[in-house]
Design goal:
Layout: H1 10-46, E1 50-58, E2 62-66, E3 70-74, E4 77-85, H2 89-97, H3 106-111, E5 115-123, H4 129-139, E6 142-143, E7 158-161
Antiparallel strand pairs: 1-4, 1-5, 2-3, 4-7, 6-7
Length: 171
């Protein structure tokens, strides 16, 4: 058998190689740009800021002096406090866990008497505090008017429930 050479269309081959090269380059560029964008967004969202929920349990009814709010009645039960931190979210939550601290937030006075059950950090660049407070207002048994949220129009950022919200399907 004799071998025969086929005619190659060199311009078509070069155009195909170039097209593949461009496609690979564009594809690699898109992957890189997507990776960089995702990394930037993760860094932005992963910054230690956002909103949080603190869950407390008050074993007995209490009447407490709460700074500017004056004397406030707290029925026994579970309390959900919504807060936010523009920075140091983890440190803010840790502060709520501690009993020994200077009191400068209304929740500090209640925390002195109530047991700390849980904290739920919600890391986000957007402030979701008021949206969370609104959602809690729909499932809570009561709220403490004027508590927290001094920089917004919410009626309260502290809500109470008779039963453990951590075991509640609504929560």
């Amino acid at each position: 058998g004799k071998r025969t050479m086929t005619n190659f269309d060199l311009p078509s081959i070069l155009a195909g190689v170039l097209a593949c090269g461009v496609a690979v380059f564009v594809s690699a560029t898109l992957v890189f740009v997507t990776f960089r964008l995702n990394t930037m967004l993760r860094r932005r969202e992963a910054q230690d800021r956002g909103s949080y929920l603190v869950v407390l349990k008050l074993k007995e009814e209490a009447r407490l002096d709460i700074g500017k709010l004056g004397r406030v009645n707290f029925p026994k039960g579970y309390y959900l406090y919504v807060g936010s931190a523009r920075k140091d979210l983890t440190r803010q939550i840790e502060r709520h866990r501690r009993l020994r601290k200077a009191k400068f937030q209304p929740i500090d006075y209640l925390r002195e008497r109530a047991d700390f059950l849980a904290a739920v950090p919600i890391r986000a660049s957007d402030d979701l505090e008021c949206e969370i407070a609104d959602a809690l207002s729909r499932i809570a048994g009561w709220r403490i008017p004027g508590f927290g949220g001094s920089d917004c129009r919410c009626k309260s950022h502290l809500f109470g429930m008779d039963r453990d919200p951590l075991r509640s399907p609504e929560f």
